[in-house]
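Suppose you are handed a protein chain with no further information: no name, no annotation, nothing but its sequence. What can you learn? This example shows the usual starting point.
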Amino acid sequence: MSDLRRYLPVYKAIMKGDWESAKRLLAQDKSALTAYVTANNETLLHRAVGTHKAIDFLEKLVELMPWEALALRNYPSETALCTAARLGNTKAAMILVDKNPALLQMKNNDGLFPVHLAALYAHKETLLYLMKATIDHHHPTPYADQYSGVRLLVHVIDSGFLDVALDLVQRDPDLATFIKLDNGDYPLLAITKKPSAFPSGCRLNFWQRFIYSRVPVKLENYSNNPNAGDIENPNAGDIENPADNCQWPKLHVLLAKVMELVTPIKHIREEKLRHLQALQLVKCLCQGMYSFSDYYGTGQFFENAYLESARMGIHEILEELVDTIPDSTWYMDADGRYIFQIAVVNRNENVFNLVYQMSEHKQYITHFRDNFNNTILHLAGKLAPPHKLNLVSGAALQMQRELQWFKEVEKFVIPAYKEMENNAKKTPAMVFSEEHKDLVSEGEKWMKETANSCTIAAALIATVVFAAAITVPGGNNADGLPMFSKQIGFIIFAVSDAISLFTSTASLLMFLSILTSRYAEQDFLYSLPKRLIIGLVTLFLSITSMMITFSATLYLVFGHRKGWILIPVAALACLPVTLFVSLQFPLLVDVISSTYGPGIFSKQSDRSFF
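A reasonable first move is to predict its three-dimensional structure. Written in structure tokens, the prediction is:
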């Protein structure tokens, strides 16, 4: 403690970036340059690197320090370069490497080089510099040996730097072979934990999908690997969008530049490039593992990655693995479940949809039972994982999605298996009812609350427009006819008022039918969603026509020879309609899409799968 107090003034000068004070104190006590100034055995250099402040200060400090002092280690046995890599201080790393390049090859207690730490803590700029510096200082690769190379590749993949990972694999295809880290991880398994890096894990809306399919993206080919190229077209040297072959190159270049300036389009373009990099990386990893001489020795590596991809829902990896080793289709997990059973349990429709790309072998997928004698229909009867249920809005729609899964799986099950019991003496239907009992109650509550709120709104609208039909604007003449009956505004008033009354009444009846429904399991599939759709659509029409009715009334009463009054009235009338659309329209779209849309089950591509 006394030594730490001795160096406290110079330590404070370092933290403040006060070079003049630090220089004076260091001149008085030169031992401070190599002394430990914290309880974690950090030197002044460690602290200066960690401040991220004045680089000039760090340069002057390094000039004063002897060459070997730069290699001093703190409590985790890390040099100052390790600290710079951990914190992403690239400029500090440059200064240290220029003074002592040997720091690049000094590990910490965990066996990590500075380049590993930069990758582990996701500092891309620092990582790229350290990789280049390692190669420039007489090292053929940015790592010391094959094990540390695989470790670096895994850390790079974990941090999401797929372009760097692809570069590493194409520089050294041996990184994809048989080496497994102490924690059991390896590159192919690491990429299976990044579902968002693949198209199947990216959730885009309609406009984003439209831009995604048309934005030009090009994946550069590395000259040192002739096998790197277009995933979808192996004969091509680069992966690019067809728009790159435009007949008007100048227009295309201009369009590309405009796209770079539009942030949403730029983001989608980067996302698409990342997907292409992930697909190419998987291809390189599979080819590298397959080329390993011990074909059967790599089976466990393929098996773990295959099953993990099924759990994570990454069908792109599964397709590549089956193309590499067709027998991988029959890998099973510890519970005796194949990939389609795993897909059903985890509700990964992207994986289950591979059945539509299979040959006649798909007839066999429903014949297998797991270690608990569950058929694939039993597994479909189990409740989906919470993170999958939460992707659907509302308990009623969640129940509908569960029923859709059960019905879809039932199509592939032979009749004898539909009533088969598992080890617990339960049929698939019994499993479904038991597992979804709480969800049915939550769905009933959600539907009733929604219907009750909308019923009040529909009843109020019906009351208002009915009263408006009796007390017409301007009153009646001596013959009992409305005063404004011959004006166009009155015709608009009468028609819109009638539409509002009829639609609000229809909406009221629909929501009342929801409130009085029996709420059986099967009702959530079509019956209840259909009523909700009709109720919301008619409610929207009633609100819109009611606003038209009110606007026409204002114009008839106050707008005589004042046409300008139509503008503010129309603008204000749009306000409640716009609010309703913004608040309820997303729900309406979700219900219509889930009930009458194309659904989540379909053939994804023409690529054959076993």
